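Exercise 7. Predict the structure of Nitroreductase from Mycobacterium asiaticum.
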Amino acid sequence: MDVYEALYTTRMMRRLRPDPIPLDTQARILDAAVRAPNGGNTQRWHFVAVDDPELKGELAQLFRQARAVEYEKFSTGTGPMATPAPGVDPAAHAETMRRIKGSGNYLADHFEEIPLLLFVFAIDDLGGANIYPAIWSALLAARAEGVGGVMTMVLRNFEDTVNEMLGVPVEEGWKMSAMLALGYPRGKWGVAANRRPVQEVSSRNHWDSPFGVEVPEPLWPPQQDVPAGLSAVG
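Solution. The predicted structure, encoded as tokens:
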């Protein structure tokens, strides 16, 4: 798979089939993840793959409770995504959140069916500088294998319980960064079209100075003709 195809079409998949992911596929996903750049090559990460049905059932109950906590925060305007980013239409933001909640409801309702949960832990991670490249590498590798997934952090609302359930040696400094729900998607891959264009979210040399190029449409898949708007401006 072309690297740009992977970059443009890897998106959060919350509607997943229950079909198991073969161990050799899981190995390729994690082997790609551990090749990710990390500070000083210290590799302060650990991955816990969960596929035991009983454990998944216990985690499912916890996930639904954690998600209720998250949406309670959202309803009171205190959640991390409660307020739209500067320049984003509030109505459009509300519609995006509505769609995400809908697909998230499916994930929560069918949590026990998710074939693989991948919990990601790190030590002294400097805000995620080391672990998030590894997580993104895992998702890109999964895309190449036809496996979809979503990264979620809602279980950090019950971090102590998760640590106990998974036997995490917290005394060594390990902290949960995220959980990936992985499986073969029910939906289709495609380029995310609902993104603000480059020129609206980028500047050159100084905040709010024009970036200098307009990108009216996604640049992948490549077009025979260069889009008219992709030219130096200003």
